[in-house]
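Q: Hi! Curious about what Cobyric acid synthase looks like structurally. Here's the sequence.
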Amino acid sequence: MKGALLVAGTTSDAGKSVLVAGLCRMFARRGVRVAPFKAQNMSNNSVVTLDGGEIGRAQALQARACGLEPSVRFNPILLKPGSDRRSQLVVRGEAIGTVGARDYFQHRQRLRALVADELAALRAEFDVVICEGAGSPAEINLRATDLANMGLARASGLPVLVVGDIDRGGVLAHLFGTVAIMEPEDQRLISGFVVNKFRGDVALLRPGLDRLTELTGRPTLGVIPFAEELWLDAEDSLATVADAAVGRSGPPRGSEWLSVAAIRLPRVSNSTDVEALACEPGVSVRWVTDPSRLTGADLVVIPGSKSTVDDLAWLRRKGFAAALRTRAVHGGPILGICGGYQMLGTRIHDTVESAAGTVDGLGLLDLEIEFAEPKVLRHSVATTRTAAGAPSRTEGPITAHGYEIHHGRVRASGDPHWLDVEGQHEGSVRGAVWGTHLHGVLESDAFRRDWLATVAAAAGRTGFVVAEDVSVADVRGAQLDLMADLVEYHLDVDGIERLLAAGAPADLPILTTGVS
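A: Let's find out. The predicted structure is below.
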């Protein structure tokens, strides 16, 4: 089998990333050499690849589903929003500047050629390439400059599956309208539909799907049931919902729960860092946007930010700054990661990201940060004899793996360091306040367990028992297998393989309501 296809969505968060990951895992389990591809992603959830670049988190997960290491090849263009109007432009893993919607158009022709070359190279190397679209392919106001949806499909001759989220309502109209609004040459590539997150009896949906086929001439190739267990590595959805629970924590191993409040910053980045905590039995993690929600929390997490100084100002306006200072005085555990770590210090000197100059931090750590070019992008292996500045439960050094994505450098630090990275001090700890630039560090199981035990002690949760058998890597692998099972059992896999081998059918009808 040899070929490629594009998975597009009626909306953002319709299920494109999950469906691509599931298809990749399914084909990989069958021994097919498969790779993912997303020409352009817009997300502040990113990872550092082994080839020294930065790509969207979803493409890193899809690569793992294929049994591959994440690479900039799988996501050559990444836009990281720093405000409502401007985003950092990352090309082949390297940040090359900040763009707005209008000036981004100036880059499109060069980027279109780059995307086409990257996809062609992947198709030559792998048997199958599963591409993911961006947003909706029906945004006809952006069609002329599109390079991730129908622009990519047309340029590379890709058959297109359109997935819709029935949980949002109106999915049949969304699927029909997505095709109908397109120009004829784009319509000719729309080869089928997938309904995602269905609850209930599929027989009740069948008449609607049959009518959709009559109206469009295109089949529905599957109805994927809602799976509550799928939550790890969500790209953006968790970061946009206030007071939303993270994960599906199992019951505590001891007599008490450990409650975690993660502050949902306006420009939160790498929100997935807290998901490792939610893998732990008895650890309840929620996103919060109001300081009153910190009451009763055993641990508060300030995650990364794409706009550290602006989000720090937001913390002050919302009342979080005062609440965090009061919490620190009383010994309440606080963790800052990357941008959140920088906010915990005394001063931030920023002429790079916000151009705000020198601003005061929260003052909970003796730390000065200076922003500089270029952006730090690297994998790090950290070690410590105590993961939390207190006697460790583990004999000998504890090792943790993480990655760094930041402009901020530590100019001065007067607190004990938390970690050692290649002989250099990394992070800070003062009482029950911890900070680090390392994303993903909590996915290191021994490190996380040791630190959680110290957090529980500091919070007075003597009845909380840290599980000794939880592996974040195993949880992630199980979720990838679940995605693949859903695809294998609920999709017309033979139909998908025919699309990969032969492309879009030649006789697909053109809807006359489309754009001429």
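A: A fun detail: DSSP finds 15 helices and 27 strands in the chain.
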